[in-house]
Amino acid sequence: xxxxxxxxxxxxxxxxPASWPxxxxxxxxxxxxxxxLLIAIVLAAVFVLARITAGPKDSGEATAGQATxxxxxxxxxxxxxxxxxxxxxxxxxxxxxIPVGAGDxxxxxxxxxxxxxxxxxxxxxxxxxxRHREIEHEIQLVGKVAIDETQLTYISSYIPGRIDRLxxxxxxxxxxxxxxxxxxxxxxxxxxxxxxxxxLDSVERSTxxxxxxxxxxxxxxxxxxxxxxxxxxxxxxxxxxxxxxRPSDHMRLDAPMEGWVVERQGYQGMYVxxxxxxxxxxDLHRLWVMLDAYELDVQFLRPGxxxxxxxxxxxxxxxxxRISYIDPLLNESTRTVxxxxxxxxxxxxxxxxxxxxxxxxxxxxxxxxxxxNELAGKWICPMHPEIVKEGPAQCDKCGMDLVTADSLxxxxxxxxxxALAVPGTAVLLTGRRAVVYAETQDEQGPVYxxxxxxxxxxxxxxxxxxxxxREGERVVTRGAIQIDSAMQIQAHPxxxxxxxxxxxxxxxxxxxxxxxxxxxxxxxxxxTRSGPVLAAYMEFTAALAADDIEKARAAADRLKQRxxxxxxxxLSGDDxxxxxxxxxxxxxxxxxxxxxxIDALRLRLPEITRAVETYLRTFGHAGDTKVYRTxxxxxxxxxxxxxxxxxxxxxxxxxxxxMLRCGEIKGVIGADGKESAHE
Length: 679
Known about the structure:
Radius of gyration: 46 Å
Helix content: 25-40%
Shape: elongated
Distance between the termini: 95 Å
Strand content: 25-35%
Number of domains: 4
Number of strands: 34
């Protein structure tokens, strides 16, 4: 059966299926489509290959040709501080420059960016009104509970001797006032007691005699008794001695106060001298809390401010105290300042050595100053600031007269009304500047403007604004990074690129250049005096470009000396006086080069250049060489600065080998002082 089918297809048309013509048409159409598709792919590949082989130069020339009519300057998308008058490559990354249009904000120096409704939605822009707010700042502190030094007592031996009996023989024991601590054997004590008994007998014998004899005997007795008291003998022992008339060679040492024995240096059987410390006793019903405040938070802290803190020993519980002292010295290792809080501890819950976490809530007023100081109007002790009274009084500890807290600077209260503040998310910090984007309105809608602001202290999530914004304006709190990125791409002033400032060395920027009166005389005698000055200046800039500090110092010294020695040959009257003044200005602009670094000399180069350029524009030069006025837009932190050269080859005096060829020639100063364009 299969053979019959094969013969039928291979034979005459009488055996073909009825669908054969339609199938052949489909196959023919598919073949033509495949051929057309193949031709299109080949043409596309040829086109792409031609564009690739053309290279970036052809592409850049085409771009330059299309944008030249509308562009007034060219910039780099990666380095927007670069602005050149014609198309080329970036001197930093060598990327092709992009045009900045004549009506572009980047060229005019303003920083404004309009955004459509769709762009604002994509950037998720949110704004907040700038207004005065009552800001509360929380300062977090850490520290430890410590012994109150004013509650610490050292118990020492008043006499030399031997400890025969020790009643307190371990640390940590609680002793109350009058409790026995130790007994000390002392032969000297025996002698002192006998002297007391002899004086006592003398008084009794002199009683019947009266008069001077009794008075003398009484004074001797008082002295002997006072000696025993100063040696620390308890009163009951002195009374027993007076009654029993039996001296003892042992002295009992009693506790002078209530407290805990935290140290014990005395042991039974040891010999002691006068002043030997035996015990250290401290009262723990009052404690100190020593907290560490970071350097940035010290400005918010004041004596008298309430402090709330917690410790791990009592979870969920808080303790309250007040700042009584702020250390005037900063710990350079930890960059912190010690803050002391006096704390009552009636239930003995807190123990020295416990770690604590403290919190201080501060309210800020106008200009970010602290308000609501707790010591305002109070009276305090200069020696013990923790002693606070409502009015004039004496200190409970030292008896000194109290003074007002204001007189000691403890109660400086800022103005109320709140501080002008913006959220922290609105501020873009660059390290040297702070930038916000303010929202304004025009006929097209919202426009976002880059503002440089001066910041006060940061309080929590807010920044205090010192200048740069007004109350009622709106600032971007979300989406500022996206707006700033668009600013940078379009070479506008932005967070990383400050607005262009008028260059200090261009014609018209200096008062002397504005008021120049041409006095140049071709072939005048004074050119022989100014020639060495100009030559020394050229040597100075060449040495800076070569990073040669020794040659730069030597050239600067020659420039200063030659300018000081120059004389206005052939000039008289006002011309001679003006010539001398300009030379003196050049000499004064040159700094002292002893131990001067090359960066310091480069910082003085703009001033020296202005002085030399002012002279050249006023009195010209000999005309043997051309003077090329050269400009670097990146010098002086992107402010731009210029220098003078004797040839057109760029040798950057501000960056040296780092960016030797960065710069452009702005013009050529001729022998008559007039400037012409560089061809």
